[in-house]
Design brief:
about 30% strand; eight-stranded antiparallel β-sheet; alpha+beta
Length: about 625
């Protein structure tokens, strides 16, 4: 049944199904409550859609556990290494909203691009024709047939379908062409074409992509900022108009392989073709500007927009606020940050007895003797990154309500009325790694399984203990630096990884895993590693984030941070770490001896003798 649901999804996605057939399929999906088949980067996934797993993504198949890898569909013949997975929308966070696909291999022949016939259609807006070799043209034309489109997050404000991909080779070819064809004033400071592309498809009758501003690309660490949007139309057609730049040009006819370049100050709207499929790529020109700086107010608003996008899965009314914030952020890069509405949205949440209020940049907690600053920081991080606790995402574990209010003066009193206990207790991680027994001389590894039944104590074998210690070290490399652990259905924290200095909370994490190598023998006898089992599996949540600012007032902790400040490297990793334990020798271990082949043993002895002679 699950395979049928998987295959019918892609069959129905190709179009042509009646509404009745589609409704029957949706009903079958909603009635299927199968659990996840794998976990990728902390995100639970299924190989077919279910009532829970409905958000399709494409990932490198090699990242899926080999035991279940073949169950996942490979719907794209041109990119067979990409497997389709279905994720739970409630588990998504700002790092997993978008699915950026690696497609560089398609553009190995992307060279000798030329932009010709430059025409200025409005101030700061130009059209070009793209000349390119036939193999590169075929690769671009073939993007539409890859079958990699997914519904956009902002589907309410835009029509059509979209997928996002990365290609440094395509960007490099366009960078060379742009450097030769740009008007002289635009060449000053031009660095490169952004290698992240959006491939958009519109059918006649689709809704317009509503009027909007493109949010500029910004990297303060490198002094990079985008100033011009680049559209590459892979198909031609006509519309009313196809592209409307407010106060500028209105293009009604587009030829295939036309490039449109316009200043990102332009508000614009796109419409489908009247007479066929519209497919185009969108990226931007990136410029080097050493004077580019970070505006904390803009960063705060962008952080709120991303947070509300994730929360809109639970509260759809937040989507319009997120869209408004994104638009204000885009305008702010050119005209300064304009004031917003007097009333703003806040989300009141209750997590395991702790009430807090958040907007994606500010997090407020009740100040009480039971709730530490480290715990407030841990809850903030788990909420923002939507960490998984057991089989459920953090946000799905919270009772939530949206509150629209003017200002923030109401929050301390609101939280005082509700009190708050402790939800993320401290935990001594050394308890996961007990010291092994002392080895004894008569507990050495036997030569084979048959001779191993003579009262062998695996917990006192020096070879088994060495193997156990190696595996402990591997687990410690991930567990000990993690500020937050997930033990079954409970989250705990390491207080030593949250360092409070002045008005900042520094969250310490790992920098790199320590490599651990294991030696293995080849014989038919018992291996020391045969007696190492998994005692439990711990979820290690490792984070690399800037310091979290905090203030204490009115009986309230107010935490504030900017994850989008580009002078900081931000990372989030959630992994499952097996904790080793030594198991005793069991009768089932004799199966090794029953399967033993004397001929193989003779071959092995001969090889061993040859190695000794060498």
């Amino acid at each position: 049944m699950s395979t049928g649901l998987r295959d019918r999804f892609f069959a129905l996605s190709s179009g042509g199904a009646s509404e009745e057939e589609a409704a029957r399929y949706r009903a079958e999906v909603d009635a299927n409550h199968a659990g996840p088949a794998a976990v990728i980067d902390g995100l639970s996934v299924s190989w077919h859609p279910t009532a829970r797993f409905k958000s399709v993504r494409f990932v490198d198949a090699e990242r899926i556990d080999a035991a279940v890898r073949d169950s996942f569909a490979r719907p794209s013949e041109a990119a067979p290494y990409l497997a389709a997975v279905f994720a739970d929308p409630l588990e998504l966070s700002f790092r997993t909203f978008e699915n950026i696909l690696p497609l560089d291999h398609l553009f190995a022949d992307a060279a000798d691009f030329e932009l010709t016939g430059r025409e200025e259609v409005a101030e700061g807006a130009y059209t070009f024709s793209l000349r390119l070799p036939d193999p590169a043209r075929a690769a671009l034309e073939g993007l539409d047939a890859l079958g990699l489109y997914v519904p956009p997050l902002n589907a309410a404000s835009r029509g059509g379908d979209r997928f996002i991909f990365h290609s440094a080779l395509l960007a490099e070819a366009l960078t060379g062409a742009a450097a030769e064809a740009l008007p002289e004033p635009l060449r000053d400071g031009f660095s490169h074409v952004n290698p992240v592309f959006r491939c958009n498809r519109f059918e006649p009758g689709d809704a317009n992509f509503h009027r909007h501003l493109d949010t500029p690309y910004y990297d303060g660490a490198r002094g990079h900022v985008s100033r011009y949007t680049l559209l590459l139309y892979l198909t031609g057609g006509s519309g009313d108009p196809v592209l409307d730049l407010s106060g500028g040009a209105a293009l009604t006819e587009i030829a295939p392989f036309t490039c449109v370049l316009f200043d990102q100050r332009y508000e614009h709207e796109g419409a489908p073709y009247r007479d066929g499929r519209k497919v185009f790529l969108r990226t931007e020109l990136v410029f080097t500007d050493p004077g580019t700086g970070h505006d904390p107010e803009i960063g705060a608003l962008f952080s709120k927009a991303c947070y509300l996008t994730g929360e809109s899965v639970f509260a759809p009314e937040l989507a319009r606020h997120a869209d408004d914030y994104y638009d204000r952020v885009a305008r702010a890069h050119w005209n300064g940050l304009a004031p917003g509405a007097a009333r703003e949205p806040f989300v009141h949440k209750r997590f395991q007895g702790v009430d807090f209020v958040a907007n994606g940049y500010d997090f407020w907690f009740p100040r009480s003797g039971e709730l530490s600053l480290a715990e407030c920081a841990a809850i903030t991080l788990m909420d923002y990154f939507n960490c998984r606790i057991g089989e459920t995402s953090f946000r799905a574990r919270c009772d939530s309500e949206v509150i629209e209010a003017e200002g923030t003066d109401w929050i301390p009193g609101f939280l005082r009325e509700r009190g708050g206990g402790s939800a993320v207790p401290p935990f001594d991680k050394s308890l996961l790694f007990p010291e092994p027994e002392r080895p004894v001389a008569d507990a050495e590894m036997p030569c084979c399984a048959f001779h191993g039944m003579d009262g062998m104590d695996t917990t006192r074998s020096e070879e088994v203990i060495d193997c156990y210690t190696d595996e402990q070290e591997e687990a410690k490399a991930e567990v000990m630096p993690a500020p937050i652990l997930v033990l079954g259905e409970e989250a705990v924290l390491d207080p030593d990884r949250f360092v409070v200095q002045g008005n900042r909370i520094h969250v310490l994490g790992k920098q790199a895993l320590a490599p651990v190598n294991f030696a293995a023998c080849q014989g038919p006898g018992l291996e020391p590693g045969d007696f190492i089992d998994t005692a439990t599996t711990v979820g290690a949540v490792d984070l690399l984030v800037p310091p979290i600012l905090f203030a204490e007032s009115d009986g309230c902790y107010h935490l504030r941070f900017d994850f989008f400040r580009n002078s900081w490297t931000v990372a989030h990793e959630q992994s499952a770490v097996p904790i080793p334990v030594i198991r005793p020798l069991e009768l089932s271990d004799l199966d090794l001896y029953e399967d033993y082949d004397e001929d193989e043993d003779e071959d092995y002895d001969e090889e061993e003798d040859e190695e000794d002679e060498e």
